[in-house]
UniProtKB/TrEMBL annotation:
It comes from the Bacteria. Residues 138-179 form the Zinc finger CGNR domain. PANTHER family: BLL6575 PROTEIN (PTHR35525). It holds the Pfam family ABATE. This is ABATE domain-containing protein.
Length: 186
């Protein structure tokens, strides 16, 4: 799982590219911890098929809205209503507690609820979709076959790939191969 899209909601969208990344509760647990929505040691015993379905549904709605924004088209009103409804819910409560070494660490208070975690991701999507500065940085990867979206926070805002190490490197290798083949045909 990668967490380099620039927003939690975009990292959720990325869990479907190039294959389903949230197939079960275990993968959702990994994503929730990796995205920073829950501290690493948070017990997530109740994460099941219903949570997976809810996060996949939110992912689909966020992707629909982000793609519409990239295309300059009107948002899907049903998707927007569902994201807004989730975003209106209370986010998870956090508190600082002492760990075994006596350091303050972040912990979710009052238990872990699916609705609260969905609210946090949906609120991030609403913030993205209503922030002109972030919308101006929204990009679709130009990598061959890649469908990821990301925020281009590079210095010159000329980033073309979701990851220079992955899609960018594949493009550079393909360009090199084309040059070698062209040079060999002369």
């Amino acid at each position: 799982m990668r967490f380099d899209s620039g927003r939690v909601c975009l990292d959720l969208v990325a869990t479907f590219t190039p294959h389903e990344g949230i197939r079960d509760g275990d993968e959702l647990r990994l994503w929730l911890a990796g995205a920073g929505l829950v501290p690493d040691r948070t017990p997530l015993a109740r994460v099941g098929a219903d949570w997976v379905a809810a996060f996949r549904a939110l992912r689909g709605d966020v992707e629909t809205l982000v793609r519409a924004e990239l295309l300059g088209s009107d948002p899907d009103e049903d998707a927007l209503a569902r994201v807004n409804a989730l975003a209106a819910g209370p986010p998870p409560g956090v508190c600082a507690v002492r760990d075994q070494e006596g350091h303050l660490v972040r912990e979710l208070c009052g238990g872990v609820e699916c609705g609260a975690l969905l609210a946090a991701v949906a609120r991030d999507a609403v913030e993205l979709l209503t922030d002109p500065g972030d919308l101006a940085l929204l990009r679709a990867c130009e990598g061959d076959g890649c469908t990821r979206v990301y925020l281009d926070t590079s210095r010159g805002h000329r980033r073309r790939w979701c990851s220079s190490e992955l899609c960018g490197n594949r493009e550079r290798v393909a360009r090199h191969r084309r040059r070698v083949l062209a040079a060999g045909s002369h």
